[in-house]
From TrEMBL:
Entry's Gene Ontology molecular function annotations: FAD binding; monooxygenase activity
Coiled coil: none
Name of the protein this chain belongs to: FAD-binding domain-containing protein
Extent of the signal sequence: none
InterPro entries for the chain: FAD-bd, FAD-dep_Monooxygenase_BioMet, FAD/NAD-bd_sf
């Protein structure tokens, strides 16, 4: 089970998990939350925003280029679409460098938008449930 809370909420981020805090907001999960014991751990979501996804004739895709929280479940989808877009760009252009430039111009806006929305959703979810 993955539970999310803003960094500022020290009690909700405590390990071992403090079940009462979570049960108050999610009473239907009481049987599971009460049984966690000391099995919880704390991880911080990381995002990646690079200035460019390529240099010369080399490009990166996926989490290397645009790691995002899993809140929208779009990281792998963006990676696959970016890879497909890269293949199309390479087919459309004479030089690899030109293809990479046009590929990033085409793919980057939607991927960056998705990454920002996923990060915002993470913050909003914690606030909506009184955990922030």
């Amino acid at each position: 089970m993955a539970m999310m809370a803003p960094l500022e909420n020290v009690a909700a981020n405590a390990v071992p998990v403090q079940p009462d805090i979570w049960i108050k907001r999610f009473p239907q999960l009481e049987p599971v939350l009460s049984g966690l014991g000391d099995r919880g751990r704390y991880d911080v979501y990381e995002t990646t925003k690079l200035e460019t996804w390529s240099k010369g004739r080399v490009a990166i895709v996926g989490d290397s280029a645009h790691a995002m929280p899993p809140t929208l479940a779009q990281g792998a989808g963006c990676a696959m679409m970016n890879a497909l877009g890269l293949a199309v760009a390479l087919d459309e252009h004479e030089s690899v460098e030109e293809a990479l430039k046009h590929w990033e111009e085409r793919e980057r806006p939607l991927t960056d938008h998705t990454r920002r929305r996923a990060a915002g959703r993470h913050t909003a979810a914690g606030q909506r449930h009184g955990l922030g």
